[in-house]
Amino acid sequence: MTSKAQAGTALWAKMPKANAELFALTYGSLVTELVRDYEDPIEVNAQLDRIGHSIGVRCVDEFLSKADVAGMGLSTQCSNLRDTAEVVAKVGFKMFLGVTAEVGGFSQDQRSFSIYLQDNPLSTFVELPSESSTGGGGGDDLRRLKYSQILCGVIRGALEQVNLKVECNIVRDTLKGDEVNEIRVDLKEVLADGAGDDYKEE
Known about the structure:
By secondary structure, this protein is of the alpha+beta class. 49% of the residues lie in helices and 14% in strands. It is built from 7 helices and 4 strands; from the N terminus they run ααααββαααββ. The protein has a 4-stranded antiparallel β-sheet with strand order 1-2-4-3, with helices on one face.
């Protein structure tokens, strides 16, 4: 187990726990309500992203404070995007969701990467309608729903608080038949000084 994975496990142990099934069902109710309210899956995706962004903005303070109290000094471990990606995946996801994520797929310029989730606690009990079962009707629209888009918003909001403007997209989803959940993260801009020289373009 890597030191970051150990840090994530230690912080997860200190977090108050919610029943996993209740958590999944509550999130499912939120998504269902948004689908009813907005009807257009693209707009539902946008709303989930906005909600996630608000959560991410608030989570980062708790994340950093708990890590500092535990003596983990995570702020010193994020001198470049690769290090930050490792902290988000192996510490952040473990601390708040209790799941282990992996990082890979770095672009040549080191400004984009993928987070891979084998287990997604948000999608427990969820099954999206297949194209064959909908006969080309409204179910096809639901295939455009990015059910866990809230995670992209959380990542975006959290990184924005540490001066990194990123774009996040779900590019693979086990609910749509993929073998793994993959979130693609692209660094668009360093918003202020202090994020480390390694972030800046050559």
